[in-house]
## 1
Amino acid sequence: MPGCTIKTAPRFTLNLSLTNPTFRLPDLYSTAKLFGFGLKIFHPWNNHEVDKEEDDEVSERETWEFVHSGRSAFVIIGFTDEDGREVRDLERCLRYCRQLGERCIMIKSIHQLFHHAPTLPKLHEHLEQTKRNDVHLWKPDNEEKGSFAFDVQRIGKRRSQSATRTIVESFAYMAMTTPIRMKDPEVLYTYFEEYEDAQAQERAQLLSGQLEQTRLDIPFASEKDKKVVQIDYEEGKFVGGGNLGFLRQIYFGRLVCEGSARLLIKKFEVKERAFYGNTSMESEMSLLMAGQTLSSAGKSVYDPFAGTGSLLYTCAHWGSMVIGSDIDGRQMRGKDASGPGVFRAATKYGLRNRILDCLTFDVTRNGWRRGGLFDAIITDPPYGVRAGAKRLGRNEKNGRMQKDEPVLMPDGTYSHLQPGYIPVSRPYEMTDLVYDLVLFGRWMLVPGGRLVFFLPTVTEDWDDLDVPVVQGMKEIKFCSGSSQDFGRWSRRLITMEKTDSETYPRPDFLPVEMEKVPGHHNFPQRFMEGFDPRPRPGQANESA
Amino acid sequence: MVRLITHNMLTCHVKNCTKDNFPLVFENVELEVRPAEANLDFIKRFIPKLEWDALVQTARSIGEDSLPEQMPEDKATLESEEFLQKLHHVLMEIHVEEGQMKCRGCGHIYPISTGIPNMLLAEHEVGR
C-alpha cells in the first residue's frame, strides 16, 4: 500500500460468539488449515507490545486456555506462512481475514487492530504517538479513501448516547480529512469497550478449579445495577454499580469484515427445513462439525448414520460431494409421498446435486467395495433412548438364536423376499460403535482425511482415554476438547485425522473389550436411568 | 438416484459371498438423466478409485456406451476436459430411480425405490 509504513506484522481483533466457546479454536484452526495459512493467537488483555515477537509456546498454550474458557468475546490474531514466519503483507492478511470470516461460524466480525489498552487515556497516548511518528495506521485511509464512520460498542454494558459522543469526540486528533458518512462508509472505525462482570469471572475460576464455591445464586443484575453509570477511565472502573463489571479492555481499529458464516445458522435452521426429524441436529452444531471436515469443492464426505441428513447439507454447502447411509431408510425418506425427504430438503437448499446418494444399510454390514474412498467421515451416532443405534442381527440375549437358513413360508416363498420385510436388528452398544467408527475411518479415509463425530458421554465418567487410540488415527484436540454440556451428560465433538498413508484392513465390527469402561458405555440406558454414578471399584454392589 | 459412481463403490456383502460379488447387475431399471454442474476436479480425483471394467460394463448394460473399453493410458487424454466431461455425464448425471441390483454370485437382490437402494441383509445373510 503506497504511503504506508507498517514495520510490524498486522494484528487483527476477532469478535467471537460467546456461546459454545470450546468450539472456537477448532473452528479457527481448521479454517486456517483449509486455506493453508497459520494462526498466531494473542491474549486480548495482556499488554504485549504489538511489535514484540512472541513465539513462546507456553504463552500460546495459556492463551488457548483463555480463548477456550469463553471469558472474553475477543482474541487478537496474526498470520504465519508455511515456514511459520509472520505475514507482514497487509493485503495478504486481509485476504486471510476474509477467508476466516466466510468460513468460521464463531466469528461475528474481524477488525484490523490499531491498538488495545485497558483505559482510554492509554489508548490515546499510544495512537497519538504513532501519529507524531507518522506511522499511524489510519494514514492510508485519509489519503486513499472517500469516507469514514465510527462505531462504538460496549460489550457487557448498556449503550449510552452521551458516552458514545464523548468517546468519538476524543478521537479528534486523528484529523480525518475525508467526510463522515454514516451509511456505507468506505472505512468503519470500530471501538469496543469490553466489560467483565464479577460473576463471569467467578464462573471461570470455578471451571478452572481456582474456586470451590460460588455465589452464582446472586441475581445477575438488579434493575438498580442496570442503570447507566459513569466510567472513570483513569481507574478503568465503573463508579458505582454493585455487581456490575469493570472495564477490561478497549480495542480500536477498523472493520475488515463481518462474519458472514454466522448467517448460515439461520439458513440451515432445522425448523425452516423442508424435512427434518425430532432428533435432527441444530444448525450451529451441524455447521461447526462440517467445518471440522475441511469440506471444500472436489472432496467426498460420508455420514454412516445420516438420519434426516443434517450433516450432509452443511458439508455440501462448502462444496463437498456427500453420501449418507442409515440402517433405517424411513429416517432419510420421511413420510411425504412427494419423494425422499433428504432429497427434498437438499433441493430446497440448491444442494441436490452434491448429494451423491443415500443408501439404506447397516454400516457394520456395509457394501463398500474398498477403503480410502472418502476425504471425511462425519456423523452424529444415534444415542437417544428411543432412537438408539441399531445393527443387523438377532439379539440372542433374548433367548432366540439367529437363524442361519432362510425361512420358507407355507406358500413356498421365502419370508425375507416378502414385500415390506424388515430384517431383525439388535442394539449397537456405544462402546463398540465408537471403536468401530475409528477403525472404519482408518480404513475408509484418504491420508490426512478426517473423522468428525459427536460422542455422548456421562459427564462424571468422562475420561480422555474414552476416545479409542489406534495406530494411524490421531485426535485433534484443543485444551480439554469441545463439548456441549447438559448437566449430567454432555456431547463431545471429536475430530480425528488419518495420520499415515498405510492401507488398513476392513474392520470386523466384533464387540471389543475395553480396559476402562468409557463414559459413553451403555449410554441410552443410563440416559433413561438419570445417570446414576457407576459403582466404583471397591464399593461395588455391597448392598446387592 | 443411484448414480453409477455410487454403484461402482458397492459390492454384495452377504455372508460368505466372495465370488462374482462385483459389480452388481442392474435389472428392470427406470432411468433419469439430470444435467448436473460439473466438478471436474472431483472427477479427476476419483478416477484412481474407479473399477473401469465394471463401470463400462454397467454403463453399457443400461444403454450408455460413450466410454471406451479401456481406460485411456496417457495422462493427457485421461485428464483432458473432453474426457472428464464424458466421465462426469456417466458417473453423475445418470440416475437409477427404480429397479434392482442383483449379485451374480449369490443372487441376492438389492431393490431400488425412489432412488434409494435397500442394502439391508436378512437374518441368515449376516454373521454374528
Note: The CA atoms of residues 37 and 109 of chain A lie 19 Å apart.
## 2
Amino acid sequence: MKNRAALIFGYNDYALEIAKNIRDEYENIYLYSLNSEQDILKNKSGFEVKSFDLSDKWDELNENIDIEKSIAFCVLEDSAENIFLTISLRSSFDALNIIALSNNKQTASKLQMAGANKVIPLVQTTAEMISEMLQKPIVKEVFHNILFESGALKIAQVKIDENNKYIGEAISEIDWSSRYGVMILAIVYEDMSSEFIYSSKIKHHIVNKDNLFIVVGYESDIKEFEKITGSRCD
Amino acid sequence: MNFLSRLVVNGAYFLNTSESYQRKKRFFYDILENDRFQYKKYFDIFMIILIFSSVAILIIEVKSEMNIYLKFFNVYVISFIFFIEYILRFWISSSVSEIIIYRSDHAIALGRKFYLYKAIISVIKAKLSFVFSIKAVIDLLAILPFFHELRLLRLFVLFRIFKLFRYTKSFQTFTSVLATKKFEFFILLMFSSVVIFVSSVLIYVMEAHNPASPVNTFFDAVYWSIVTISTVGYGDIVPVTTEGRVVAAFVIIAGISVLAFTTSIIVSAFTEKIDEIIEIKTIDNIRKLKHFYLICGYEGVAQEVAKKLKSSKITIIVLDEDIDRIKSAKKDGLIAVNYDPGNIESYKKIGIDLNTQVESILCLRESDVENVYTTLTVRSISKDVNIISLLMDDANRNKLKFAGANEIFYPKGLVGMISKELIGRPVAFEVIHALRNDYYGVEVEEILVDDRISQNLVHVRELNNVKFRVVLLGIYKKETKRFFFNPIEGTLLESGDYLLVIGNSAFIREFEKHLHKKIKT
C-alpha cells in the first residue's frame, strides 16, 4: 500500500526544522540526502534518512508513495542542484505538491519555472519580518502569534456548505464580527482566486456555495462560526 | 602644604566641581570648538561676516574717506569682538584647575611635597602651547589693527582672512590634504631655490656689466628669475646678451618642470585623499542625523532589509569592514562607512550617540561569530540601544542572547514555521502574507492613540472607522501590553494604545486624518 508522506530533499538545518514543524501533520517523513552514508551515520534527528542522487528516476517513490497526497520540500543548499531536483521531480510527478526554498529572487523565479507549487524566498521573508518588526512591531507580534504560535487567536479557512443560511446574501451586509466574534479577512473563490474583504470589488459579493472564508478569531468563536457556515478545511 | 598652596588647590577643586562654572566653560567650548553643537554654525557665520566686513572697509578706505561710524565699527567693535574671542579660546584651551588638581593628587599619591610653582609652570606651559599655536598667532595678529594709529599695523587686517580657516571646514580640508605632501613640497622648494639662486647669479654676472641690459642690481636678477621660473614672464626685465638668453632658456625649462611638479603634487594629494575627504563629509552628515537605523554588515538579508526600510522616514546607515560590500551599499543609494562594526573605536571615530541617535542596530552578517561580536561591542557602549540580530545556527542562540541582542531572527526556524502553515492553511497564510506586504493596496497599519486622540475620543464606538471602510482588527493596550481582538464598543481609548486597522491604504490615511482632526464638541 502506498503511503502519504512528506519528502524532504536535503539533509541540513532547513530540512530538520521543516521535519520538526510538520511531524504532527505527516506520519511518514523521509529526509533524502545526497551524501547519505555520512548523514545516516551522524543522524540523531529521529527521522529516517534515505539516499538519492540527482539522476534518480524515482522508481522507489513511484512504488511506495501516494504522490497525490504527499508533499515534497526541495531545500538543497546549492541553488543549481535545488532547481535541477525540482525539475526532476516535476517531470516525473505532475500531481506532487512541491515546496522549494530559494536564497534569492533570481532562484525563486527559476524554481517557479521548474515547477515548484510554492517557493519560500528565504532572504526576502527574513527581511520582511525584520523590517516589519522595526516599522510595525505590534502588527508583527499579532500576526506572528496568529500564524505561528499557539495563542488564543487563530486564523482558519472555513468553507461555505450548500445548506448555509447566508447563501444569496451580500457579504458586506452581514456584521460577522458582532454576530460571531470573528473577522473575515478574505474570500477565496472556486477558481482559487482570492479577494480581500476590504477591497471595493467585494462590496456587493453574494455568498455562494463553496466560497472559502479566511477568518480570524478566538478558537471557540471560530468553532461556533463553523457550525453555522460550513466546515473547516485546515 | 603652606597656606597659599592650600588656598590655590582648594580654589581649583571649587572651580572643578562648580556646576555653573563648568556649564559656562562647556558652553563656550561648544560654541567655539564643538562642530556638533547646533549653534556653532551661527557663530561661525557671524565671524565670517565680521572678517569680510573688516576687509571690505580696508579696501574702501584706501581711496575714500571712511564714515566715522564705520571706522569706529572696524577699529573698535570688530577688534573688540576678536579680542573677546581670543580670551575665550585662551580660557577653554586648557583647564588650570585640572592641572593644579592633577599635580596635587600626584604629589599626595607619591607622598611628595606639593610645590605650587611647579603647578604654575605646568599651567604656563599649557597656556603658552595655545598662544604659540599657528591659529592663535593668527588670531592675535588679527586683533592688531586695533592699534590703527600705526599705519603699518593696518595691513595686519589681512590676518583676519587667515582666521577664515577656523570657521570654514573646506579650508581646513584643503590645508590638511596639502600637508600630506610636505616632503614633496620641500623638495620642490629646494629645487626652485637652487634654480633661482643659480640663475640670478648667472644673469647678474652675464648682464649687469652691459649698459643696455635692464638688470642693474642683484635684486633685479632675483626678481627676473622668480618671474621667469614661475612662467609668468612680465617682460619688464629681459636679457639682452646671448649668454643671458642661454641662461633664460634653462630657467624657462626649469620653470615648466616646477609648474608641472607643483600641479602633479596637488592633484595626487587630492586623488589619494578623495576617499578620505568623502568619508569625513559622510561622517559629518551622520553626526548631524537625529534618528537612523544602523545596519552592521551588508550581505543578502541586510540588502533586502535596507530596500524595505528605504520607504520609511528614518535614514539607514551601513557599517561594514569590507570595502566591496560598502561599495555595493553606496551603489544602492545608502550612506555607508567602511568601519568594523565589531570595533569600539569605529563608533568613537564616527562620533554617533547610540542612545539618542540610533533607533535600532541590525546585526545582519551571515555569520554568528560576527553578529555575537558586534552585539557585544555595541552592548558594551550602550545598555539601552535596541539590537536585532540574525542567527544562522540555532546552537548559538544563547550566545547572542547573552551578548545582549533584544530580538533574534533565525531564518531556518522561519522556514520550518512557514512550511507548517503552507501545508496546513496555505490560503490563509497567503492572505496574511499579502496583507503584511501591502499587496493589492490593502494593508494592515498600526495607529498610535496619542493625547489628542484620547482626549477627543473616549471609546472605541466613537472611532467611526466603518464610515471610512476601515476594519478595526484590535487594540493593543499599553497598560497591560495585551492585544484585544475585535474590541467591544465600550473599550476605553487611552494614550499610548495602538489601533490595528485593516483596509485600503488610502482609506486608512483618511481615517488617520479624521482621528487627528476630530475635535470634541
Note: The first helix of chain B runs from residue 3 to 17.
## 3
Amino acid sequence: MNTSNYPDDRPNLGLEQALPRGWQPLSPEHIRGQRFRETALARRGYRPDEVEAFLARMAEEVQRWTSTHARDLAEINRLRGFFRNQNIDTEPARQRAFSNEAINILATAQQQADQLIADAKTHARSMQTDARGQAERVVVEARREAEAAAHAYRVRAGQQYSADREQVERLAAIARNILAAVAGATTQLDGASAQIRAVGDAFSAELTKLVGPPAAIPAPTAIPDHPTATGIPHVHGQTHR
Amino acid sequence: MTVDPDRLQASWARVVAHGDSVPAYFYAALFARNPQLRQLFPASMAGQRDRLVTALGRIVARVGEPDVMLPFVRGLGRDHRRFDVRPEHYPPVGEALLATLSQFLGPDWDADLAAGWTEAYGLVAQVMCDAAAEATRNEPPYWQALVVEHERRGLDVAVVRLQVDQPMPYWYLPGQSCAIEVPTRLRLWRYYSPANIPRRDGLVELHVKAVPGGEVSTAIVQSLRNGDEVRVGAPIGHSLTLDPDSGRDLLLLAGGTGLAPLKALTEQLAAEGGRRRVTLVVGGRTSGDLYDLPALESMAQQMPWLTVIPTLSHDAHAASVDRGNAVDVALRMGRWDAHDIYVCGPAEMVATSRERLAEAGIAPQQIRSEDGTNDPYRPDSVATVAVADRAEVYAR
C-alpha cells in the first residue's frame, strides 16, 4: 500500500502498459482451489517449498494490484488538480442546478411559437375549406346548368334531336359557367391587386417621409406593377379579408 | 422493483395536476441543457406535450405490474428508432425528468423519491434501448423511399408512388398503415395505408388528400415532387387486415382516400384466387372525390367477383353514379348479414356508417374500421408482423 514506490506521475495510465505481456491475473477461485501435496513421510502438512512458492506468487500479485491502484489514484488526483486549475467542473451534470430563468424563457418562447403555428394552421384550414366549398359550388352549378341546357334542347329539338347536339349543349353550358367563374375570380384578383397597390403606395409614401424622395429606390414604378417587389412580407396576408 | 409504486404514482399525480406547464418545463429543461436534442423534435411542440404526459402516465400507472408495463415500454423503444433516438439520449432525458419532478414537487421531493424515480427511469430506459437494439436486428428504424410518381387527381388528392429502398424488404399486410415523413416537414410523421399489396420491387402506392390546415398532407399533395426522398416507418395496425379464418364475402365501404387500404385488400383477395364476392362502394361528396374510378373499373372488368359502386352525396347532377352516402347506397342494395364489412374514410363517415349498419341490424363484430386517429405516435398499436405472415400476402 505504499504509494511512494511509484512516485512517477505519468499521464498515460493504461493497465496494458503497467502489466507484463501474457500475464494471467490470479483469480479468487484459483486461490481457493489451490491444493498442496502431503510430504513424503505421510505426516500431515504441506510441502514447505510449494507453500512458499505459492505465497510468493500471491505476494507478487497483490503487489502488482496495489501499485496499479496507487498509480490510478495518483492519476485521478492529477487530473482533478488539472481540471480545478482550468476551472473545469468535473461534478456530474445532474448535481448542478438547472437555471430556472433560462428554462422559463425557453418554455415561453416555445409556447409562443406553438401558438403562431396553431394560428397559421387555423388560417390555412379556413382558406382551404372556403376554396374547396367554392370549387364544389362552381362544379355543381355548372353541372346543374348543363343538365338544364340539355333538357331545354330536348324540348325544343323535337324530331331534329341528336345525342351529339345534346352533349354539345351540355359542354357549352359547362364552358359558360367556368368562364363566368374565372371572370369572377379575376375580378376578385383585380380587387386584391388594387389593395396591394394601395398598401404599396402607402408604404412608399411613408418611406419617403422617413428617408426623403426615392433616390435610394432604384425603380419606384416597380411598386405598382409588381406589388410583391416591395418586400413587405405581410402584404399578402392583409389582402384576404 | 424496490421502489414503492404507490409513492411514485402519488408523486406523479401531484406533478400532472400542474397541467401543461409540466411538459413545457420538461422540454425547456431538456433543450436548455442539451440544445443538440432540439432537432429531434418538430417545430411545434404542441402535440409532443400530450404524448409525453400520456406515455409517462401509462408507465407510472402500471409501475407495479411489469407484465403490462414492459410490453408497452418495449413498443415505445422500437417505435422511437424512427425518431433517431439513440442510447446516449436517455441520460439527458432522465436528468430533465428528475429536474421537472423536483421543480413541481418542491419540498415533497426527497432522497427516497429521487432514488425511486431514478431506478424506475433507469429500468424504462434500459428496456427501451434493449427493445430498439433487438428490433434493429429484424428491421431498420425506417426505410428510405423515392417518389417515382406524384399525380394530382382533382383539387386536393394526390396518388403517390414510392419506390422503397430494399436492403431489407418492405413487407406489410394489406390494410396496415405506415408512418411517412416527407423532407419538407421533418419530424412530422403521418400514417397512410398502401393501396397495393406488397410487391417484390418495393413499389408502394399511397392516396393522400390535402386536409385543410394539415401540415403534412398539404405538403404531400402540393409540394412533393418526383425524386424526393421520403422515410417510411414499419407497418402497423390490424383493424383493417383480412381475417385469415374467414371465407365470407365482403362489403367494402370507402370514403375519399379511405379507398387505399380497401383497394389493397381487393388486390390481396385477387392474389388469393378471387374466391370471395366483393362489393366495393366508393363514396365521395362531388365527382372530384372519385379520383381512382378508372383504375377501379378496370379491376372490376378483370375480376368477375368484384362489383364497384361509385356514389356521390353532394353532386345531384353527376351521370351514372349512385346518390347518397356509401353506407346508404349499400343498404339500399341488399342485406349484408353474412358479410365481413370493412369501412375506411373520414372519421365522420366511419361513425355514420357504423350507426347505419347497426340500425340495419348488423352485428358490430362484423364491421372492421380504424380508430380514426392519425397520431404519429401510437405505440400501443405498434406490432411487428411475423415475417411468415407477411410472406403470405407477398405479390407473386
Note: The interface with chain A takes residues 21, 24-25, 27-29, 31-33, 43-46, 95, 98-99, 103, 155-156, 210, 212-213, 215, 218, 285-288, 314-318 of chain B (CB under 8 Å).
## 4
Amino acid sequence: MLRLENLDKQYPTGDRAVKGVNLTIPEGQVLALIGPSGAGKSTLIRCINRLVEPTSGHIWLDTQDLTRLNTAALRRARRKIGMIFQEYALVERLTVMENVLSGQLGYVNFWQSWFRKFPQSTIDEAFRLLHRVGLDSFADKRADALSGGQRQRVGIARALLQNPNLLLVDEPTASLDPKTSRQIMRLITELARERDLSVIINIHDVPLAQMFAQRIVGLRMGEVVYDGPTDGLTPDVLTQIYGEEDWTTDADSDADSEDADEAAATKTPMTSTLSDVIPGVTS
Amino acid sequence: MPVSELNGQKIWQRRDRPTAIKHWLMWLVGTLIVLWCWQIISDATTWAFVRDSPEQAMQLIARMFPPNVAYAPTLVRPLWDTLNIATLGSIMGVAIALPISFLAATNTTPHPIVRSIALLMIVTSRSINSLIWALLLVAILGPGLLAGVLAIGLRSIGFVGKLFFEAIEEIDREPVEAVTATGASELQVLSYGIVPQVLPTFVGVSVFRWDINIRESTVLGLVGAGGIGVQLSAAVNGLQWGRVCTIFIVIFLMVLFSEWVSAKARKEII
Amino acid sequence: MTSPAAKPRSWSPPPLIPNPWWRWGLGLGAIGYLVIALSTLNVNWARVATGLTRGTRLLSGLLQPDFMSRWGDIQAGILESLTMTVVATVLGVVISIPVGFGAARNIAPTPIYLFCRALITISRTFQEVIIAILFVVMMGFGPLAGVLTLGFTTIGFLSKLLAEDIEEINAGQAEAIRATGASWLQIMTYGVLPQVMPRLVGLSVYRFDINLRESAVVGVVGAGGIGATLQTAFNRYEFDTAGAILLIIIALVMVTELTSVFIRRRVQ
C-alpha cells in the first residue's frame, strides 16, 4: 500500500508543482493520474521514488517513510519500485538483454554488473519476461534497432525484472500510435493483475485511462481536483480538471491531444475560448 | 533605418549612418593594429637576408634533390620510436583524462570545487604545447624517449579531457534517470547509464588525438625527447639536405598513413 | 504464467568482435605491442631520480615565479609572440579565402582544385616547427620566419574547413543569384560568401587562439617569440624564470580562449 501525506514540491525557480497532495493506493489497484500538461503529474510520480526530491510531506510505502531514507536505504527501497517512461529511457547502445538486466542492478555489486555476470535465476527471469512481452528473439539486438512499441516493451520488462511492489508509469503511450498505445496499456494492466501490483499511470489520453484504470485522479495545478471511479468523469468534472470545453461532442482524432493539453495548461479556468479538443469523452 | 528618403526618393543603403561609421572605425582600428604589429616584426627582421631568400630557397631545393635514399634504412628505428612516443603518450593522456573528465562535467562532478580543479588541469595541459612540455621534461629527466612520451601524454590530457567532458555533459538524461530508479549505485549508474552513451565519442576522440600526436612527435627530437626529430635536427645542423629531404618524405608518408588509419577507425565506430 | 523458457539458458553479452580469431589476435597483438614498445623506452632510472629533485625545483619555480630578473627578455618575447600572432592570423585568413574557394570541388576548375588541395595537404602534414626550420633557413632568424610559418599553417587549417563548408552550401541560393545573370565573382560574393561567413569568422578567431599557442613554440628553432626566452631559461636551469613565462603563456591563452569563445557565440 502506498500513502502520500501532504506531499509538496517547490522548485528552486519558485514553481510549486505539487501542492499538499494526499492519496492512498491499496495493493493491486491501477490508478490513472490525468490532468493538463504542467499540472504536476510527472513531478508527483518522480517524488515517490525521489528522482525529484519532495519539499515536504511523507510517502509511506507499506510501513516505510520514503522521505526519511538516507541514500543507501533509498536505493534499497527503489529496487522495489519499478518505473516506465514516456521516451522509454533505454540505454540505446546496450542490447535489449542488458537493458532488461539493468532492472536488477540494485541486487548485484559493481564488478558483477560491470562484467555482466548476473545470477542464472535473474537471467532465466529476464528470458521469461522477454517472452511475456513478446520479444523472444530480440535479446541480443541493440535497443536503438527497435521500434517505439518494442522499446516500451523492453522498458516494461526492465521494470518488472525488479519484481516491484509498486509500478510508476510516466506517459507510457505519449510517443506511440493509438493501436500500439492500447496494446501497451493492456500489457501493463494485465501484468499488474498477474502480480497484484499497485500502479500509478500518468496519462494524457482520457478514454485510454477510463478503459484500463480502476480509479482516476485528476490533477490541476498541483492539486487533486477529482478522485473517483472511471465513470465519474462527467463534463463538469473534466471542466474542473482541464478547463472550459464542450465535452459532449465526439472528437475524431487523437492527433490534437498534445496541443489541446498544452493549451489547457496555459489557460485559466474561466477562459471559454478553448478551441482545441480533448479527444472523445463519450463512452 | 537602412532606407531613408532624400528629395522624395527612397535611398537604400546597406547600413544606416551610425552603424556604418562604427563599422568603418572598427576596420580602421583593426588595420592600424595590424600595421603596428607588422612594424614591430619588420624592425626585428634583417631585410638583407629576406631579399636573397628566393635565391636561398632555390639553393635549398637544389641541394635537397635528389633525396638521399641510402639514408632511409637508418630511419626505421627512429620512426618506430616516433610511433611508440605517439601511441604510449596517447594511452597515457587518455587514461588520465578519463577520470578528470568525469570530475569536470557538471552532471557527474562530485563537487563544484573538484570541478574547478579538474578544469584548471585541463586548461593548463591545453595551454602548453607538447614541444614546450618536452623542453620542460628534458630539463628534468634528461633526453630520451621517456620525456617524449610524457610530453605527448601531458599535452593530450587537456585536449582529450575537454572533448570528453563536453560529451558527458551532452548525454541524454532519461536513461540515467531510469537506471537510477532501479536502485542502482552511483558507479552502476555511471557504467550502465552514462558510459555506453559516451563511449563512441571517447574512442573517436582518442583515435583523433593519436593521429595528431604522430605529427607532434616528429619534432620532439629537436629538443632531445626522442623520435625522428633527433635525426632531423642533426641533418639540418649538418646541412645534409639530401638527408633532410628523405626525412621529410618519410614523415609525410607516416602522417598520411596515420590520418588514413584514424579516419577509417572513426568511420568504423559511427 | 506461460513458461516456454523453462530450461535455464545462459547469457553473456555479445562480444564486440564476433570472429574469435580476430578478437583474440587483436587482443594479444595489442598486449604484445605494449610490451615491446614499453621495453624500447630505455629509461635511465638513476637519471630520473636526480631529475625528480629538479622537478620539485621547477614546481617551486611555478609557485614562486620570478618575473623580474629577466623581465626585459620576457616582455620583448611576449610582445613578439603577440604581434606575430596578429600578423600571421590576418595574413593567413586573407590568403585562405581564395585558397579555400579554389579547394572546393563544386566551384573550382580541376587544375586549381588540385593545386590548392596539394598546398593544404603539405601545410597540414608537417608540424609547425618543421616548416619554421625551412623558413628560418631561407629568411634568417627572427619573427618574420615565425609569421610566415604560422600564416602558412593557418592556410592549411582554414582553407580546408572553408572548402568543406563551401562544398556543403545550399546550392539553391547560389543558383538563384546565378539566375539573375550575375558574374562568377558576384555569385561568390552574394550567393556563397554570406553562407560561409559566420563560420569563417568563428574559425579565424579560433585559429588566432591556436596561433598564439604555437607562437610560443617556433622560437625554439629561432623563428621569434617567447619560445627562445623559455628555452634559454630551461637550458640555464632558471626554473623560476621558466615558471614565470609558463604562467604568462597559460594566462594569455586563457584570456584569448575566453574572448574567442565569446566572439564565436556572438557570431553564430
Note: Residues 186-217 of chain B form the longest helix (32 residues).
